[in-house]
Amino acid sequence: MIRTEHIYKSFDEHEVLKDINLTFYPGKCNLIIGRSGAGKTVLLKILVGLLQPTSGKVFYDDTDLFSLDRKSLQKLRMQVGMLFQGSALFDSMTVEENIRFPLDMFTSLTYAEKRKRVDEVLERVELPGINDKYPSEISGGMQKRVGIARAIVLNPKYLFCDEPNSGLDPKTAITIDALIQSITYERNITTVINTHDMNSVMEIGDNIALLHQGRVAWTGSRHEVLTSDNETLQDFIFASPFLQRLREAALRHLKENE
């Protein structure tokens, strides 16, 4: 579990985050959503320790992230996996070398043990046998799955995903969502996803936090999205006429079956 307490973040005179109090639960897909400029990326960077908050705390279970010394912080980071926007694979490395990178950095495993682990995670993301290919030789969707394989190669307790469906076609995006969800459930990972993809919200949003102008405007699950009367949420989720009609139809169905 990850928990924030009264997180504020300012850049010079500009206050980006204002009193953020959130809990991200294990075994669930925890989504951070909001318009551009709402503070999603800044919050994600604070959660992983890439940015220091102006004030406030981040707890990993009962551990205060920003009170850790260098050695303890490195130990914690071994429990964290990160799927970057655009996958962020090293072009000059093969798929195997990309996935093996965290193992090289944080473990003393033998080459054979690392190779076995790489094969295991490639099998898990349904890409067996592509060890020797380079990122330029595989599709964008496959690159994203390689990114997931690298993110889980250390068996993390915590997984962060920054816009995992960015640049993907709808069908591939659904596949990536389903993969992240299944890995989260089977390994009881605390997964935090920064996204603006409404399909992700409706399909895998176990625990959703909507940021608006730097504040938490709404929290709930995907099951509560359609019936919430929160105006900020409705304005964000149902911006298009099609989605608004979908919501109205769903509400009629719920009313008819009461």
Strand content: 15-25%
- The number of distinct helices, counting runs of at least 4 residues, comes to 10
Low-confidence stretches: none
pLDDT averaged residue by residue = 91
Q: Largest sheet, described in full?
A: 6 strands, mixed
Percent of residues in helices: 40-55%
* H/E element order: EEEEHEEHEHHHEHEHEEHHH
Q: Write out the strand line-up for the largest beta sheet, numbering strands in chain order.
A: 7-8-9-4-10-11
Report the structural category: alpha/beta
Rg result: 19 Å
**How many strands appear in the DSSP assignment?**
11
Ends: how far apart?
36 Å
Bulk shape: globular
What this model shows, in words?
This protein is α/β, with parallel strands linked by helices and 258 residues long. Helices cover 41% and strands 23% of the residues. It has ten helices and eleven strands. The strands form two sheets. The chain has a six-stranded mixed sheet with strand order 7-8-9-4-10-11. Strands 1, 2, 3, 5 and 6 form a five-stranded antiparallel sheet that branches.
